[in-house]
């Protein structure tokens, strides 16, 4: 963790300068300063930020925080998905897809994931190199999600770019250009998903999208909910998992002993993946609307506020994780206490799948290529919302 820039050390300045490039490159010193100063930080942008682990953990489970009443702006379509609903509609929608992410189902998805990973690693074995983002992490996670939905994998690169364009607009420092780009991306997605749904109606199968259409036919889901939920799964079903794999490979390339422990000791894998997710969380916050005043450790989070629960900060809170900037696979309770999958009723429905995909990709990569090493500059693509890697070139021998 780097030192906080001197320009950010005055109490008269914005403690969380979301739009600043230095902040986006390394927000963690800024997080620590807010954690030390206050349980609730009111940003000049008008949002109230919660940065301490205990407070975030509790608020993720507090029914006084609403997703439905939040203004999603350009992403208003997601109000009709499980992401944008409160109880009881949230539970109704979640139940429809929950049976697709049981441990038994995930074992099947792991077999699919393994096939994509093996294909990528076979090519790497022939060429001697691998660009982890484009050649491995994205095609494997995107392909698996497409298989789960029971749809094709065409226009994969366009889907990824549209997802990234949407993500850039869902952040405090979004510019007019970001919002315009997200509008274009959503229009593209609506057309794309509409075509998928129409094809499925004419050619039914046994994928998750078929389950949504069956729920629509019986009146359990509305058509708008089918569209929104399919868009959600298709758009973000690969994003965080791709970064977890990319960042995991990046971290373990620098820690060969841990990489080989990951291969040799399967019982350690969940712990290592949890630490990968904790130390640089893919999505740095979740956002909620506050329906009534809430006392947060002596400070009022006021009704009507937009609350940013800074899970990336909670995962680096030294009150819970000693020496949080160290990558420590012996850290106690990290699998239970990290916040990377959010929590409460909106906790990530696909977290079992995410962990399984991490195990498959990291285990296979380091098993086949124990001498792998970086072969160029790692290019990142970070905002205040998303931690991403654009390019991760690796030589395998």
Could you walk me through the main structural features you see in this protein, from its secondary elements to its overall organization?
The chain has a single domain, classed as Orthogonal Bundle (Cytochrome p450). Mean pLDDT is 94; it is low at 6-10. It has helices spanning 21-25, 28-37, 53-59, 89-98, 103-127, 132-149, 156-169, 176-202, 208-217, 223-236, 239-253, 256-264, 269-279, 311-314, 334-337, 351-368, and strands spanning 41-42, 48-50, 65-66, 129-131, 286-290, 294-296, 299-301, 306-309, 373-374, 379-380, 389-391, 393-395. A five-stranded mixed sheet has the order 1-2-8-5-3. The protein is globular and about 60 Å long. By secondary structure, the chain is of the alpha+beta class. α5 runs parallel beside α16 and α8 packs across α10 (223-236). The relative contact order is 0.18.
Tertiary shape: globular
CATH architectural designation: Orthogonal Bundle
How are the strands ordered across the major sheet? 1-2-8-5-3
Low confidence ranges: 6-10
The averaged pLDDT comes out at: 94
Number of strands: 12
Helix count?
A: 16
CATH topology: Cytochrome p450
Radius of gyration: 21 Å
SSE topology string: HHEEHEHHEHHHHHHHHEEEEHHHEEEE
Major sheet, described briefly? Answer: 5 strands, mixed
Q: Supply the number of structural domains.
A: 1
The name of the CATH superfamily reads Cytochrome P450
Oligomer: single chain
């Amino acid at each position: 963790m780097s030192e906080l820039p001197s320009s950010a050390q005055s109490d008269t300045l914005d403690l969380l300068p979301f739009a600043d490039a230095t902040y986006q490159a390394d927000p963690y010193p800024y997080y620590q300063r807010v954690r030390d100063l206050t349980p609730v930080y009111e940003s000049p942008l008008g949002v109230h930020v919660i940065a301490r682990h205990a407070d975030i953990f509790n608020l993720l489970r507090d029914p006084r925080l609403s997703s439905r009443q939040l203004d999603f702006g350009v992403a208003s379509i997601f109000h009709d998905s499980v992401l944008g609903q409160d109880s009881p509609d949230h539970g109704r929608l979640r139940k429809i897809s929950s049976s697709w992410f049981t441990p038994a189902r995930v074992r099947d998805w792991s077999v699919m994931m393994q096939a994509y990973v093996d294909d990528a690693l076979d090519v790497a074995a022939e060429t001697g190199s691998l660009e982890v983002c484009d050649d491995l992490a994205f095609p494997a996670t995107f392909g698996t999600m497409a298989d789960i939905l029971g749809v094709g994998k065409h226009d994969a690169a366009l889907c990824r770019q549209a997802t990234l364009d949407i993500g850039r607009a869902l952040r405090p420092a979004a510019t007019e250009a970001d919002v315009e780009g997200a509008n274009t991306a959503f229009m593209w997605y609506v057309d794309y998903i509409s075509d998928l749904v129409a094809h499925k109606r004419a050619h039914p199968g046994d994928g998750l999208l078929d389950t949504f259409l069956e729920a629509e036919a019986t009146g359990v889901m509305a058509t708008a909910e089918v569209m929104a939920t399919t868009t959600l799964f298709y758009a973000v079903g690969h994003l965080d998992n791709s970064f977890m794999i990319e960042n995991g490979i990046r971290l373990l390339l620098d820690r060969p002993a841990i990489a080989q422990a990951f291969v040799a000791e399967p019982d350690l894998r969940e712990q290592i993946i949890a630490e990968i997710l904790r130390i640089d969380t893919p999505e740095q916050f979740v956002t909620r609307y506050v329906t009534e005043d809430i006392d947060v450790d002596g400070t009022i989070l006021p009704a009507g506020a937009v609350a940013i629960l800074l899970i990336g900060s909670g995962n680096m809170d030294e009150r819970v994780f000693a020496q949080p900037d160290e990558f420590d696979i012996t850290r106690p309770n990290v699998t239970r206490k990290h916040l990377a999958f959010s929590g409460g009723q909106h906790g990530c429905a696909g977290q079992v799948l995410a962990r399984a995909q991490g195990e498959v990709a990291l285990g296979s990569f380091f098993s086949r290529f124990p001498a792998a090493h970086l072969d160029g500059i790692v290019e990142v693509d970070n905002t205040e919302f998303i931690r991403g890697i654009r390019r991760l070139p690796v030589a395998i021998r």
